[in-house]
Amino acid sequence: MRHFPVFRLRVSTPRLELRLPSLDDLDDLADLAVEGIHDPESMPFLFPWTDAEPARRAWSAISFHFRTWASWTPQEWTCPFVVVCDGRIAGVQEVSATDFAVTREVSSGSWLGRRFHGRGIGTEMRTAVLHLAFDGLDALSATSGAFTDNHASLAVSRKLGYRDDGVDVRSRRGGRAETRRLRLSRDDWTTPPGFEVHGLEPCLPLFGAGPTE
Description:
This protein has helices at 23-35, 54-71, 100-103, 121-136, 151-159; strands at residues 10-12, 16-19, 76-85, 88-98, 105-112, 141-147, 163-172, 175-185, 196-198. By secondary structure, it is α+β, with helices and mostly antiparallel strands. Helix 1 (23-35) crosses helix 2. This is RimJ/RimL family protein N-acetyltransferase.
């Protein structure tokens, strides 16, 4: 798509490819959401979309991508990549920003199908978008966050060098829950070998990316 070249953007890692999904990819992603993302007793998401019945959960997994594409501007964007592992759709890794041209800061979020848990994929796909942000878009910082009982997400952040940035209090399933904010500085980041970004140059204006003053 000439007018939205983000569809040609790829981030490759030793095991994964991250790309914007095709329509067939979205079907596979919906199936993965129906299979399950996390233990039903837990809720790792601020918006509890996985509490919905299966058909609604599948539609949520699909419609999120259409909404982000339609609302994308250089001032406010969310780039939701599908994560491909061994030719199969494994989950979603997004990176987003508001006023990136000024803030040079991104945030991230993700989910992974349960059958792909426990293989280090979560760390590798977060590393991929951090490589895109710091080495491709010239970001200065990246933020993340997780409920304090989301040990897997917090472990990924710690492994990648994020530092504590405070605590927020949220309502989760009608109860009080704390989320931990985390921040990673460009000065604390080094991309490991084997991570590459492809097709970024024509996308830079859509990300509000350019030279740092």
